[in-house]
Design a protein that fits this description.
The chain is an alpha/beta fold. Helices cover 41% and strands 16% of the residues. It has an eight-stranded parallel β-sheet with strand order 8-7-6-5-4-3-10-9, covered by helices on one side. It has a two-stranded antiparallel sheet with strand order 1-2. The structure holds 6-hydroxymethylpterin-diphosphate (HH2).
Amino acid sequence: MLVMGEPLIWRCRDREIVCGERTLLMGIVNVTPDSFSDGGAFLDTDSAVDQGVRLADEGADLLDVGGESTRPGAEEVPVGEELDRVVPVVERLVKEIDVPVGVDTRKPAVARSALEAGAAIVNDVTAGGDPEMFAVARDDGAGLVLMHMRGDPKTMQEDPRYDDVVTQVRDYLASRIGSAVAAGVPRAQLCVDPGIGFGKNLEHNLAILRSLASFRELRTPVLVGASRKRFIGQLTGVEDPADRIEGTAGAVAWCAAQGVDLVRVHDVWQMRRVVNVVDAIARPAREAAG
Ligand code: HH2
């Protein structure tokens, strides 16, 4: 049985997100034509805002608005286009719902504009690949997700190799935490994510999922994004990502049982039911064990 740490407060501007009491759901709003599972479904501002409002109603604890797909092979989106996609959506969502809104971007200029529009969190899949991202998070007191990726989306799935994937991913995240803190971002604003499917094959993803407890050592909240991903298709034989709900539920249940703080999901309605059950079973048991 895994032993959890104390509840953690994740500071995201004026929001204090309490982690550790239950599994928090980060609902995904992809304002893109080409995301791997819902590309094109929410490309115009109105439908993206409607989707964000729906996910909040369904029980999302926070939202993640993205304007650039990071699926394997994806091309980079020009900054102006990414701004046009995400900023109007963030601007409206923060007025219409009460849950914190984040922006999924690797570009500091997009992060800065989204924060000006009222976002509270920056989800950077490059973990500060552009060091300016640290200054953006520091200046605005924003929450910052540091995710592990090997290479970039264009090439990351070309024969990924590790000697020891869990140790290497954890050491990488520890060193990115160190760089963020050195650049003036308080640790309390940071959250880490091992980056399921980002430069990792099936065995790498499974090894990470088996060892989630070890990421607690980093003393930040831990986020996992397994929703609808390819490894779930590989394990279930389901080709269409939008049809991978049961497989996603399996992964989300596992994450909740391991004490992961946040799961990033497309299907909030269904995953809320999953974590309600698993949290009721696992959290008191873990507290007793701790
Ligand atoms: N996965 C995706 C995108 N952003 N951010 C974090 N922190 N963790 C993840 O696992 C993660 C992420 C990919 O999922 P999605 O946004 O649905 O697809 P796409 O990148 O094709 O838009």
